[in-house]
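REQUEST FORM: STRUCTURE PREDICTION
Request ID: SP-0412
Submitted by: Lab K.M.
Chain count: 1
Length (residues): 277
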Amino acid sequence: MAKKKNKKFWAVSFFLLACVSGWFIEKIINRFLDKTIGDKVEVAIDYSLDEIDAMFRQSFTSMKNYLAKNTPQQIETKAENEDPEAQYNLGNMYYFGTGVAKDYNEAVKWYRKAAEQGLAQAQNNLGFMYNKGYGVAKDYNEAFKWWRKAAEQGDAKAQCNLGVMYDTGEGVAKDYNEAVKWYRKAAEQGYADAQYNLGVMYYFGKGVAENYNEAVKWYRKAAEQGLAQAQYNLGVMYGNGEGVAKDYNEAVKWFRKAAEQGHAQAQEALKEPGESW
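STATUS: Completed
RESULT:
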């Protein structure tokens, strides 16, 4: 986690913004407690179970489409005959427990076979299994190795994951410049997690010069794709007037979007004035 930046931030409800005078709003605001931006999560490496499934959504879609054209028996036969796409999708079947009993050890086995043939999606998934210790001993060095192979082939998820490893120093020496490099590659492909992480790097001046305008730009791109943490941070930027004109209506708008997804800090921000900040 990055060090906390003590930035004062207050917000008022839509009702107050619409219905009371500026003098009264200011009087109420002055009673609010300080709120900081520093509690936000910088990088998304420690996924919850739901987020893990989201990360593998592309793998699930690939598996579904492959199963629509092949029976499980046909897929297994193709995999045994060294077909990398079949090996990758058989790994997905074992990961999700679709058509076979769920088995992370078997998932790793088949991801590895496809990864060793150069299939980027399998390399990314194998890196993930090593990062989490699913079906194999947790090994950040191996996670880095496989994510780098996939990242160099242009896989956006792997590029983002590689950026996280450089950002946190897991499996490789910490290097913020390299983190920014890989976040940017993935962000420019439209990968929301990387866009958010790149915004954080600009906000804190890690690997790049501190630039709130760029932070807002990348938070917005991720927020518009529905990433709750980015929506919350964008709301904070509007509330503080950092990188954008101060606008409480916009702040509340983005807090609401994040809160509707269950984001706890955004939900706190939307409580009645005086209750939280």
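NOTES: Residues 73 and 99 are 9 Å apart (CA to CA).
Reviewed by: T.R.
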